[in-house]
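Reference record
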Amino acid sequence: MKSVYITGCSKFLPNEAISNDQMEAYLGMINGKPSVARRLVLNRNKIKTRYYALDMNGRPTHSNAEMTALAIRGLYNQEFSGNDIELLSCGTTSPDQLLPSHAAMVHGLLGARSMELSAFSGACCTGMQAMKYGYMSVLSGNSVNAVCSGSERISSWLKSGKYDAEAEKIIRLEQNGIVAFEKEFLRWMLSDGAACVLLEDKPGKGLSLKIDWLEITSFANKIETCMYAGAEKQSDGTLKGWHEFEPAQWLDQSIFSLQQDVKLLACNIVEFGQEFLNELIIKHQLDIHSIDYFLPHLSSEFFKDKIMDALERAGTPIPEAKWFTNLTKVGNVGAASPYLMLEELFHSGRLKKGEKILLMVPESARFSYSYCLLSVC
């Protein structure tokens, strides 16, 4: 088996950073009324700025595929271009269409040579799934390099027009016209952007990160769905998919809006993450004290203290001084978030040879987790 190295990192964040007070100007107000939930959600997640691939009138400025292609072009230099890519592996929650795949659309925009493609669609862990496919390809000798990405263009899902029909329906039923918190909650959590890494079978001339291991697991066998879109959750916890509804219901019931069972999230996401980490510590004989940088993908700062407490209780504490996150600056960008943290740290000038980096990526859709250990070289 060969070793695999991250030899380049790049990102693309669309337009200018958007403050909390500007969000409704871009996304719109549901039923023309300011959100009751917005301040509560933002107060807990602590996000200060984020990026939308929208202009002030809510018109799209970039597609998901365009942002991903722009991030990938940021990897190009005198020694590496699109015609050198052997494998393109992409992950996203929010592809621009059902078909063709997101990776195929990115490849088409790159205009590079013919290459192997791999596309993952799901939630936050899809970016890490894309990276693992690239890692295994290079590790096995299937390819000498792979470009792996995580990206989201979620803002179009969050625009008020996706919810207005349901709000109007509620008013007709003589209720208050406020869309359920589970549907509105994610409007104030998620944002747009793309980032990527270049994997190669040899270290680069400059800074490189050796992938020591990359592990992913699912807890879907233990618990019902927590976050979903294109479906409605039933009383027994199962999902009724969009194709089982009439087209008129898609708008009336906001079927395609992102929804999250916040109670289910709060009760399980931290515990499952710690359970998987405990398994990996044994499997890989990981000395938690050897970690120099801990990069947890946080959907909200609300979970930071809870994760720290769980680590402490398990006897695997990671001091806050070793944590590196950028949630408050770039927002929760789903599958792109771990890449965005890694890209910022990679270019920070802080890394030294021999240091260890631990990435943690939770996914609440049906509770999946990914951890990745990297060595600076």
About this structure: The radius of gyration is 20 Å. The longest helix spans residues 262-283. The chain has a mean pLDDT of 94. The chain has 13 helices and 15 strands.
